[in-house]
Amino acid sequence: MNLRHCIKVDDFSKSEIFELFEIASEVKKKFRNKENFKPFQDLSLAMIFAKPSARTRVSFETGFSWMGGHAIYLAPQDIGLGKRETASDLAQLFSRYNDMIMARVFSHNDILDFEKNATVPVINGLTDYNHPCQILTDIFTIWELKKSNFDHLKIVYIGDGNNIVNSWLRLSSILPIEFISISPEGFYPDNTTVDLAKNSGISSIKISNSIDDVKNSDVVYTDVWASMGQKDEIDERIKSFSSYQVNSKLVSTAKPDYLFMHCLPAERGREVTNDVIDSKNSVVFEQAENRLHIQNAIMLKISGKI
């Protein structure tokens, strides 16, 4: 079997993304029904965290353990990535110990080194450039809730042009959507990734600084204004992003049945108000649960266990 990795969203074709949806739907039912499902019996997953996260750790560890395997958590102080050991050395070492590697790192070059040097499947748990597991989760959640009207949905992201936006752009080179990224000037997403999405001709792409583009949207998505490693910039970022808060006035122009999404953790009262994140349109906790199920589907798919 050819070795498969999940480094970016477009490592999967359109048909494979829909296959992931079907696998995730099936394992979601099994998980909620507490069914016995052990495709990873006696196998191990190394979870390498240079960049901490509660949701990523709990969802991967819970999912792999439920499917019969043993998930090993390696904290930043256990690894010392780039200080004690290189990503390439760790990839080769853990490929001898483990059956799969998940790495959540800062530098995207580190995950590329894992991909290049590992002899077992590697999953990108997040880099500063992209976050494929999150965006596959997001589009799966939208598919679940808007399956009857899934083609060419208007998805609007408001906030920093970060790894979430880059991943949405890469997805839009595979699946047809109308994607608008709204940010203050100076905080736009990666130009090369924007060009990739536009040049694919698959989706309608717009990079904007106007909140008026929220009008008639099917999905309104936001994220924190300062990611991990940027917290020392928060005062300046608050000044730049203050008019981009997702609040009831902003979402009033979206479609009545719009979905509000956030990858969490949310800084309530900053990028989003309580009346939006706690509204009937908010799907943030269904979205968060689906991280578990789509990651299970990814692990099953790339390992050939389904």
CATH secondary-structure class of the largest domain: Alpha Beta
Within the CATH hierarchy, at the fold level, what is the topology of the largest domain?
Rossmann fold
Number of strands: 9
Work out the helicity level. 40-55%
Walk me through the structure.
The protein is α/β, with parallel strands linked by helices. It folds into two domains: 136 residues, Rossmann fold (3-Layer(aba) Sandwich), CATH 3.40.50; 154 residues, Aspartate/ornithine carbamoyltransferase (Rossmann fold), CATH 3.40.50.1370. It is built from twelve helices and nine strands. A five-stranded parallel β-sheet has the order 7-6-5-8-9, covered by helices on one side. Helix 2 links the parallel strand 1 and strand 2. The relative contact order is 0.16. The model has no long low-confidence stretch (mean pLDDT 96).
Describe the secondary structure blueprint for this structure:
Blueprint: H1 14-32, E1 44-49, H2 54-66, E2 70-74, H3 76-79, H4 87-97, E3 100-104, H5 108-117, E4 122-126, H6 132-145, E5 154-158, H7 163-171, E6 178-182, H8 191-200, E7 204-208, E8 219-222, H9 234-241, H10 248-251, E9 259-262, H11 274-277, H12 284-303
Parallel strand pairs: 1-2, 1-3, 3-4, 5-6, 5-8, 6-7, 8-9
